[in-house]
Amino acid sequence: MSEERRRGAQAPAEQQNQNQNRGGGGRGGRGPMGPMIIEKPKDLIGTLKRLIGYVGRDRILLFSLIGIVVVVTLLGLVGPALQGKAIDIISLENGEDHVDVPALVQVLLIMGGTYLLQAGINCMQGILAAKLSRSTVRSLRNDLFQSIIRLPIRYTDTHNHGDIMSRMTNDVETISNTISNSLASLVSSVLTVVGVLAIMFYYNWFLALLNILMVPISLVVTRFIASRSRKYYKKQQAVLGALNGDVEEKVTALKTVTAYSTQKKSFLHFQGLSREMRRTAIKAQIYGSVMGPVMNFIGNFVFLVIAAVGGYLALKDVITIGTIALFINYSRQFTRPINEIANQYNVIQTAIAGAERVFAVMDEKPEIDEGKAELAKEDIRGDIDFEHIDFSYVKGEQVLKDFDLSVKQGQRIAIVGATGSGKTTIVNLLTRFYEIDAGSIKVDGVDVRDIPKNTLRSAIAIVLQDTVLFLDTIRENIRYGNLAAGNGEIEAAAKIANADHFVERLPEGYDTMLSESGSNLSQGQRQLLSIARAVLADPKILILDEATSSIDTRTELHIQEAMLKLMENRTSLIIAHRLSTIRDADRIVVLDAGHIVESGNHEELLAAKGRYYELYQTQFAGLAT
Amino acid sequence: MRLAKYLKPYWWLAILAPLTMIGEVIIDLFQPRLMASIIDNGVLGGDMALIITTGVKMLLLVAAGGLCGILSGAFSISAAQSFANDLRQDLYKKVMSFSFEQTDKFTIGSLITRLTNDVTAVSDFISSMLRMFVRAPVFFIGGIVMMLSLNTRFALVMIVSMPIQLLVVILVFKKVRPLFKVMQEKLDRVNSKMREDITGARIIKSLVRENQEIDRFRAANEDLLKVSYTVGRTFAFFGPSLMIIMNLSVVAILMIGGLEVEARNMQVGEVMAAISYISQILMSVMMLTMTFMSITRASVSAGRILEVLDTVPSIKDGGHADNDPIESIRFENVTFSYPNSSGVPAVKNVNLEIRGGEKIAILGATGSGKSSLVQLIPRFYDATEGKISINGRDVREYNLENLRDKIGFVLQSSNIFGGTVMENILYGNAEHTREEGMEAASIAQAAEYIEEFNEGYDTPISEKGTSLSGGQKQRIAIARALVKKPPILIFDDSTSALDFKTEAKLRAELNKHMEGATVITIAQRIASVLSADRIIVLENGEIVADGPHAELMKTSAVYKDIYDSQIREDAAL
Prior knowledge:
- The complex is a heterodimer.
- By secondary structure, chain A is an alpha/beta fold.
- Chain A is built from 20 helices and 10 strands.
- In chain A, the strands form 2 sheets. Chain A has a 6-stranded mixed β-sheet with strand order 6-7-8-3-9-10, with helices on both faces. In chain A, strands 2-1-4-5 form a 4-stranded antiparallel β-sheet, covered by helices on one side.
- By secondary structure, chain B is an alpha/beta fold.
- Among the domains of chain B are: 1-139 and 293-313, ABC transporter transmembrane region fold (Up-down Bundle), CATH 1.20.1560; 152-265.
- Chain B is 62% helix and 11% strand.
- Chain B has 17 helices and 12 strands.
- Chain B has a 6-stranded mixed β-sheet. Chain B has a 4-stranded antiparallel β-sheet with strand order 2-1-4-5.
- The longest helix of chain B has 53 residues, at 210-262.
- The radius of gyration of chain B is 36 Å and the shape is elongated.
- At the A-B interface, helix 1, helix 3, helix 4, helix 6 and helix 7 of A face helix 1, helix 2, helix 4, helix 5 and helix 6 of B.
């Protein structure tokens, strides 16, 4: 049962991967122009520390970036002060009757110079940020991939592939954007706030205090609107997800929808979602659009207060007109970074939540390999012994119980049984894709746990029902079996696998690129290529797991022949439904609920009229039992 | 823009949105003027009362402007979302009415994107267009007018800074846009490497190629990083360039303003207003270019949507409906080729008569035309030549719903929907009861495992049926077809995931409960077809054998070949 469930869980996960490409409404599908949905990380500090570890790998880069940000920010603070000075010069207060033009030119030259310098350093900042993001993402992505490829098969079998993919794409992307934007912006915002405060107090403490009083007002208002609009955005995202999900489900299942004439019903359902979408989207977006005008109003209000109070102070000759201009400029620079800090905090939180997911995969335990036996692939002969094996995928649902099987070098063993009887499990255990709960598996008398995994696995080749081929040429796909193989060996392997005929008929022969879905080859042709790959790998032990079940019987004859050649002089375990694949085996083992219920060759088992006979009858004679 | 007709019902929103936007912009334009007056007359003139009165006036104006802005947003957002709502529904209806050859032509994935992403892209564009296409030009022109009305000499600053600004924006986008495309390709490569390796983990591990895969991934990653770094670097120049243009304009205005104040042509507050205007003008230049850039993107989406809307459903509904018992299904000189295939027919000149109640099996290699043949009966596709008739009446004359109601079609890959097991079984059979659903499940050999579930028939199934095995899904799909007890049952290779024992039981139950039904079974396995009244063997779209098993064993070499390959001589045992 559990095997069946596990296999069932695999295929849809692959479908989901493809669906993701179509841009359905998966996680990370952000709405148009929307504020981001904030996710809260579970362990903020711990993850942040680890992330900083990644960012700080190139310490010189990180510190020079921070240094530059400081310089740029300080230069930015000088601008308004100089502007204030210039305005003081051109303002005719207190009975001045002419503008001091040389002084103005001098100030303006300094201003222009400062601006140019600032822009130049700003460019450098951008480049350094891009560099930092590149180096961080590089190591993050490579490390993540390395962890994934070293994960035990159990992990990929039990986790949604789309979800693993999304960590690689969406999460790393978010982290990368955050590093290149938020880091600099955060440093600069904090510095600006502090700097502006200092300058304001330097010029006039009263106006400065007034400015500070404005901060809570604007913060409270923006927080209020933001939290409202975020609430609706979340709703909108949920409806959007449901809508996209419905489209995806129904359009993908259009054949079923048509066959059952449920177009009208589907439409009504969709209509409901679409209307709901309109309703929530309007609400969410209007709330989102309120922010700009409100901030504008607050900004103007602050200006007015400064102008009124400043005007009063100017009348009393406490400050100059330039100081008012300076305060107007600085008050703009003051509220912006405070909002920025709040925003960046959210962005960073989301990025850290992403980083947490990435690290969670990295923290999965990789495959254990404690094999220390000094054994080369060539030393393995191919005797296999399963002794008293207990195994379960999920605790409590035992798949194999006290399982024994002994195979001699060069023997051909067929394993038959109903779906879920544990056939594929045997393969999973021999290759150590999964670890047994009790008992031991021995190859040539050595416990497989003592053989280094790489040695063990390179002695075994498997051919699966779902062929695995890579986005590469046919030649490279065959070479995958043995990287050291030359072209001659590759073609010889293809010949043994009966693949040479069709490959040579392709216009580009062995250099034909496989398309991503493999649609330019038939299922049978793909299987011949994976057999050729196994031939080239020259294993001592061969496993054929339902290798021909998705292929029609006439093509199968062709593949059959190739497999017979492949099995020569190798210990072979064959899992199959079809008699043609089974009957020539040296021994047939009938599995039921994790036990061997029968074993013997074809004739013996038929004569015994037991389980095999029964299977045989229902399968091949078409009789119900 | 033929999609504009979808905006028509909301014309008043579409007109109010730009109108209110003009209101907001004009108020925004006057605001620096008021500020100047506060400074020049109030602060410099020492008139405290003027500061307060003008100030309150300004605040009121700003509030009114803000209100206009909010209203404009509300109008345009409502217009765009209503537009999207109507468009989406029409698209959905259209897609649902497509025949399979039409969905094949578009591909499922692209239809989904058109219905979701493309609609969103167009409605986003409309929402921003209704505002930006007014806002940017009005700001631009209004800003220039206000600035010149302050002092004509400022024209010099604008003449120099505006073209430079435009140039920078256009140059950066020209450089970055193709890079974005390349970046997407490289990203796809990284993703597909990842997907390849997750799905192929068993092969990679068994061949001990982890290290090689890591190297390959690194290379793909490096490729991607190279492009994204180039993009980042280009953008690193973009921001500072815009800033320096703006800042140097401010310097220039201060210089000119200083001289003008000295000449007694202006006051300092007006110079400050000019600084506000120049930044507004430069902003609007950028906004305008951005909006124009977004047109191309939206028009691509609009084109893709129109393509769907313009497609006329190729299957025309007939008017005839009846509930007569099935006497015959007849294929007469039927030829069929898929629209995308280069003219090679999938079904060639097939003549076949199936009598009511007959159990027919169709056998043949993959690609021999089995599925294509049976899909013509419920008119999933229409025959290219020849005709198919039920009870002597061309299937094209039947009302589609009536026709498909006669047929229980179990597809090769069964679709499971989100919902409970029972909802899935009763899918398309809403008028049938729970009991009928359970009976169908029991015939389909699904009852046993369903009852083992904790919540039985009310067990929720996740979308796409992730929690079920292939065989379990197939049996639910079979049960679904059986609920309405259709007179014609078609199994399109839909028992492949069942083990033999289950399949045999299913067949026995079917014979018992659906005795009078005409059953057409497509199969790969010879065991699945042996008990049929007649076996039809297809090869390259043509019927090469037709008869019961015993007869075919004698007369058909092809059939015997298939038989031998699966069973060989000793089947007599």
